[in-house]
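Notes from hallway chat w/ T.B., transcribed later so I don't forget. T.B. wanted the structure written out for a chain they're using in a teaching module, and asked if we could keep both sequence and structure tokens in one place. Agreed to drop them here.
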Amino acid sequence: MDIFDKLANSKFRSKFKLKEKEKLYIEEKGIETIKSHAKDFISKRIAPAEIANDGKQTPMKGHPVFIAQHATATCCRGCIEKWHHFKKGVQLTESQQEYLVNIIMEWIKRQ
């Protein structure tokens, strides 16, 4: 069972869907720009070892990547530790950040 199967079985994670507004935003900006945003959000809000507002740093709306982060459990270090097994309190490596961005982008593409 891959991560997407596990997420689909979560009542909370599976309720997140992109609305027309977010889909139009992706279309207007282009998928590469969205990927750039995802990389930026992960590197600045998720990757550091210590995050003052961990668990609250990812809004529930406002950007397709934010919605994807909640859907893929890449929204905070607690969810990442639970679902993706990357320890809290440790700076994420480039490879771990790339993995999270790829999960986010795959979820967006599946919408």
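Follow-up for T.B.: The chain has a mean pLDDT of 96. Might be a good example for the class.
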